[in-house]
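Incident log entry.

Two folding requests arrived from the same account within the same minute. Monitoring flagged them as a possible duplicate submission, but the sequences differ. Recording both here for audit purposes.

Request one:
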Amino acid sequence: MTTARDQLAALPHDGGDWPSPWRVAVGAPDPGARPAAVLMLFGVLDGVPSDHASRAVARDLDVLLLARATTLGHHPGQVAFPGGRLDPGDDGPVDAALREAVEETGLDRSGVDVLGTLGELPVPVSNHLVTPVLGWWSRPTPVGVVDDAESAHVFRVPVADLLDPDRRRTVTVRHRGRVHKSPGFLAEADGREHLVWGFTGGILDALFDRLGWTEPWDRSRTLDAPL
C-alpha cells in the first residue's frame, strides 16, 4: 500500500511542473529576485485528527503552518510555511528552510526527513524566487511561536481538513490596481481560525492536485483577501 509519505517522496522525481501560468503569481520572475526557501513539513498529527473522511489521506496526516505577525512589512498576518530568504551561511535552500523553521517554530531539525525539493516559484510582490522543500516529520517535537515580532501562531492542521470541500474558497486578491484569484482554505487550530491563501494557498492547491488528493469543490464560493 502506497503511503502519503511515499507519494510525497516521489514528487521531486516525477518531472511534473507547476501550473503555468502560476496560480497566484503570474509572470516570469524578476532577474534580481532574491532566493528563498520554505519547508513543507508533513507528518502524523499528535493532536485531534480531522472529522472529514477523505478518500486520499488518513485523518491524522497534518502539515505545519504559521500565521505571520500583523506588524511585518511583507505579507502581514498571512498564513505561511516556515521559511525565508537564503543567508550567506546557508548550504542551499534545504539548509535555509530548516534553519528558518527552527528559528520560527522551535522544531528539532534532526527529526525531519528531507524528501527533496520542488521547482522554484516566483513571488513578485516581495521579489523572491522560492524553493519549496518537502519534509516528513519522522520524529515530531513541540513547536510554538519563538519570536512574537515574526509569528502570531504556529500550528499543525490536518490535511483532510484542507481537502474538505466545505473549507475551500476562491480568494479575490486586489493589488496595485490588479485583481487575482487565489485558491483558499479555511483552517482551524488551537481554537483559532485562519484563511490560507496567496502563495501558501496556491502551492497547497497545486500540490494536492499533483498528488491526486483534491476533492471537487465549489470555486464560485469567494472571499476577499484580508489585506
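Request two (distinct sequence, not a duplicate):
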Amino acid sequence: MAHLLHLDSSINGDRSVSRKLSARAAQAWQAAHPDGTVTYRDLGANPIPHLDPLAWEARITPASEHTAAHREAARIGAELAAEVLAADTVLLGLPLYNYGAPSSVKAWVDRLIAAAGDDPSALGGREFLVLASRGGGYGEGAPRHGWDHAEGWLPHGLSLTGLEPRFITAEFTMAGVNPALAEFRPHAEESLAAAEREIDALWTPATATR
C-alpha cells in the first residue's frame, strides 16, 4: 500500500502559500492513491527539538556504549527517519524566512542526518517533493539573485541521507500585501498558477485509469 509523508513548516497558518501548495499536492497524491495512507507532521506548529550536545554525543558514540540518556536523545531522529522510510513519497512545504529555510526544517534535517549515521543513502529511493514559496524574486537578473539559501542548501544537507528533493516554487508571494512589490503582482499570480499546474500534473488520478 502506498504511503505519503506530508510535512509543513510555515508559521503563517491559513495565510501560508507553502501550506496551500503542499495541501494541493497531498490531495493530488491521494486522488492517485485512493487506498494509500498518510502521515502528517507540522514542523511549524510543533517544532522538533534542535540537535543538542547529548544527541550529538549519541551520534558519535557506538550503540553498544549508549546510556539510557543516549538512547532517549537518539529516539527523535530514529522516529523521524522511520517516518521517511515508511513513505513512498515525501512532501515538504517550505517557506523562505530571512533568505533561508525555517529553523524547524534545519532541525528536521539535522536529526535525519544523525539517524542515518555513516550511510549516505540510508533514506534514499523515494520521491521527495518540496513545495516552496518565497516572498520576493531571487532568480537570474534579480537584484538579490542567489539570496534564496533554502533551495541551495536543502539538497546539500540531505545528500548525507540519500533524499533528493525536487522543487516546485511560487515566488513574489508577498506582492499582494507589500506595496513595494505591487508591480510584481501579475508575475506572482502566474508563478502561483504555474506551480499549481505542475502539482496537478504530478500523478494521474486513479479514476482516469479505469
